[in-house]
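Sequence, please.
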């Protein structure tokens, strides 16, 4: 384990060559995956050379090899970080026992469910972003989109490897299903709600990579703590690639905010008259994608989550460094709930509230980015500030989905919610307008009018670099 095989059909460091049956099974899945990529991957640009990084090993630097690649020729590989010296389970009822190299029989169902749910998000996001290349604001951004897309494809491979290697026929069936479900399809939708939402312009793309990929960061980090070591090591390596996706989202939004602030000043408060994006629209997009992403953490009170933790399958964010008690059998957590029309604080057994513990970490991280964007507004001399809505607003999963709230988190009537939702959330007029101003810009170094230039290029290249050869 650990040696990289770059010569086989599937690059890997999991010794596929040493398990011919598994290798053949995955090689059989490869053309099905390619069929899916050709049907549902980026529309167009499949024969163009794109300046992409490819993971060729897990060592520092090995995962970021830059070169021109045609997307269908990208080497989707299977990589895990090396085994750690400390091989004991770090939390839950099996704390301190040796980690599992094979699936413990009694946890097979739960592990399968976690891995399939994680896997399903990867192709879903590629499907959601399918047409964005055709309206990219620059070659720099187009390249970043395609980088994100090929790496989500690689993350699908990472999960599919686990399904094939550890779940026999069930795993192979699940892997086929992963290529059959489709984002937004009424009959065979993707599993989690945010992955069925339309992402048809770049304001949504940047919000998605900022807020929804950030759920990925926290979920993967929790799974990187798993007592099932192959899952932990796989997720650790995925996290290295995830950081760039988050950068694309956070810096992309910052660039839109900067440009919108400039246009707001130049036009005396009407950036739309200059083909720009209004700060109100940006706020509505934040409200929309942040709240859909909050749903991805599951219910506030969840026996599934309590079991995953107790069984040692899914820990907390940075379980080892952030927490002292890794068992948490008797703790409690306060969760505000609606009782007789008012929000009151109720005690919940800690393990049952573990989804909320992770959601807290996520919200703190989102708040940090908000502060940064607001500094951009401040520097531009504007008084408007962007905010995160309450975690209770616009929810479709968990306790709060049964009631209506305003963005401040106050209980309101359904009628009041419906009368105002168009001014609180990205709406169809916004989407039509945003699509209408997004025309593809393909001159190297040039940016669309509604976004400012990034501070620097990719991998030390200048902004004028030909990131996509058209
Ligand atoms: N939409 O017990 P509950 C990423 C279902 S993103 C629809 O509260 P649990 C990425 C739930 O399945 C990270 N359904 O939930 C980002 C259950 O259904 P059943 C993805 C939902 O299990 C960008 C019922 O509601 N990784 O990597 O505690 C681009 C009750 O649920 C939703 C993972 O998610 C929803 N939002 O927690 C590319 C990690 N939420 O059983 C990639 C693996 C819940 O009643 N998944 N339901 O039919 C998990 O750990 C958990 O499954 C969840 C849900 C945290 C998602």
């Amino acid at each position: 384990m650990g040696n990289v095989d770059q010569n086989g059909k599937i690059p890997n460091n999991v010794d596929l060559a040493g398990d011919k049956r598994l290798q053949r099974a995955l090689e059989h899945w490869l053309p099905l995956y390619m069929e899916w990529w050709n049907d549902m991957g980026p529309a167009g640009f499949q024969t163009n050379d794109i300046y992409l990084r490819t993971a060729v090993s897990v060592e520092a630097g090995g995962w970021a090899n830059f070169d021109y690649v045609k997307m269908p020729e990208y080497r989707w590989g299977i990589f895990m970080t090396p085994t750690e010296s400390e091989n004991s389970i770090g939390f839950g009822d099996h704390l301190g026992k040796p980690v599992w190299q094979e699936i413990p029989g009694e946890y097979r169902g739960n592990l399968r469910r976690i891995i399939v749910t994680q896997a399903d998000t990867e192709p879903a996001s590629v499907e959601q972003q399918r047409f964005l290349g055709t309206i990219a604001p620059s070659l720099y951004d187009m390249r970043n989109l395609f980088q994100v897309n090929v790496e989500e494809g690689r993350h699908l491979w990472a999960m599919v490897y686990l399904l094939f290697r550890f779940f026999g026929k069930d795993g192979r069936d699940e892997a086929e299903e992963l290529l059959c479900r489709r984002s937004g399809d009424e009959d065979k939708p993707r599993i989690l709600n945010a992955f069925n939402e339309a992402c048809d312009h770049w304001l949504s793309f940047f919000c998605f990579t900022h807020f929804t990929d950030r759920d990925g960061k926290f979920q993967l980090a929790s799974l990187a703590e798993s007592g099932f070591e192959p899952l932990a090591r796989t997720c650790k390596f995925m996290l290295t690639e995830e950081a760039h996706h988050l950068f694309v989202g956070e810096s992309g939004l910052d660039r839109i905010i900067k440009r919108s602030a400039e246009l707001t000043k130049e036009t005396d408060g009407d950036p739309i008259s200059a083909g720009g994006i209004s700060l109100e629209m940006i706020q509505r997009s934040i409200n929309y994608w942040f709240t859909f992403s909050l749903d991805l953490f599951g219910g506030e009170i969840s026996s599934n989550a309590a079991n995953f933790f107790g069984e040692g399958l899914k820990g907390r964010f940075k379980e080892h460094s952030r927490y002292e008690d890794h068992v948490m059998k008797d703790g409690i957590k306060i969760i505000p709930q609606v009782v007789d029309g008012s929000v009151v604080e109720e005690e919940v057994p800690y393990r049952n509230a573990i989804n909320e513990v992770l959601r807290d970490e996520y919200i703190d991280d989102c708040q940090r980015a908000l502060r940064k964007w607001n500094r951009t507004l401040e520097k531009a001399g504007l008084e408007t500030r962007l905010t995160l809505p309450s975690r209770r607003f616009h929810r479709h999963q968990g306790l709060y989905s049964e009631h209506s709230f305003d963005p401040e988190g106050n209980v309101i009537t359904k009628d009041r919610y419906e009368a105002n939702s168009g001014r609180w959330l990205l709406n169809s007029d916004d989407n039509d307008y945003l699509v209408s101003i997004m025309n593809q810009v393909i001159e190297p170094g040039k940016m669309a009018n509604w976004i400012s230039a990034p501070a620097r290029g990719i991998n030390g290249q200048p902004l004028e670099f030909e990131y996509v050869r058209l």
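The beta strands are 49-54, 65-70, 332-339, 342-349, 404-405, 411-412, 468-469.
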